[in-house]
Design goal:
With 199 residues, the protein is α+β, with helices and mostly antiparallel strands. It has three domains: 61 residues, Nucleic acid-binding proteins (OB fold (Dihydrolipoamide Acetyltransferase, E2P)); 71 residues, DNA polymerase, domain 1 (Orthogonal Bundle); 49 residues, Helicase, Ruva Protein, domain 3. The protein is 46% helix and 20% strand. It is built from ten helices and five strands, in the order βββαββααααααααα. It has a five-stranded mixed β-barrel with strand order 1-2-3-5-4. Strand 2 and strand 3 form a beta hairpin. It is globular and about 45 Å long. About 6% of the residues have low confidence.
């Protein structure tokens, strides 16, 4: 239904962005690889995936900086038992390159460490998507984000978990644990990945 949105970034947090287009503010759920490229006050163009939950009457927009990220997200949705929330959690817990490599290489231990992915679902990911991700594996790696300060990274990591639907108390506890086992100056993305493994 929606192909892309182009507008001014009002706010950008790990996992969530508010983009104003045509006088309307759109709440867009985004993976860390996308949210790290968004800056408030700047214009952004996000490729969209639109979902409707008929039972709850809820609509959600998922946004991606590149077609490669969106293709990976939509490929994950083809696997039985993987919905939009799980797919987004996977893209927040691992970079697109890490996910693509793990699926293409049949790396079940890495996949099973992701939140919501058990042994059977990890096997399905490899069996059903191995051929589909072959083309994505050849794409150029996206530029990495500059690490943020430790205090700022921790706060941003909590916001990312909140955007993914986790309670604040659980999110803060997981980030605190992630901080203890992380190096000084750890980036937000690294803290979120570690926290998702601990939740």
């Amino acid at each position: 239904m929606f192909e892309y949105i182009r507008g001014s970034v009002i706010s950008a947090f790990p996992g969530l962005a508010i983009v104003e287009a045509g006088g309307i503010g759109y709440r867009v759920l985004v993976p860390l690889s996308t949210s790290g490229k968004l800056k408030p006050g700047q214009e952004a163009r996000l490729l969209l995936h639109h979902t409707i939950n008929a039972e709850q009457g809820e609509e959600r927009l998922y946004g991606f900086a590149t077609e490669r990220e969106r293709e990976l997200f939509e490929a994950l949705l083809l696997v039985q038992g993987v919905g939009p929330s799980t797919a987004l959690q996977m893209l927040c817990a691992a970079s697109p390159d890490e996910l693509i490599h793990a699926i293409a290489a049949g790396d079940l231990p890495t996949l099973k460490r992701l939140k919501g992915i058990g042994p059977k679902r990890a096997e399905r990911l490899v069996i059903e998507l191995k051929d589909k991700v072959a083309g994505l594996a050849a794409a150029a790696e996206a530029p990495r984000r500059a690490p943020s300060s430790r205090a700022g990274a921790a706060a941003d990591a909590v916001l990312a978990l909140l955007a993914l639907g986790y309670p604040r108390g659980q999110s803060e506890q997981a980030v605190d644990e992630a901080l203890k086992s992380s190096k000084e100056g750890a980036a937000t993305e690294d803290l979120v990945k570690r926290a998702l493994q601990l939740i």
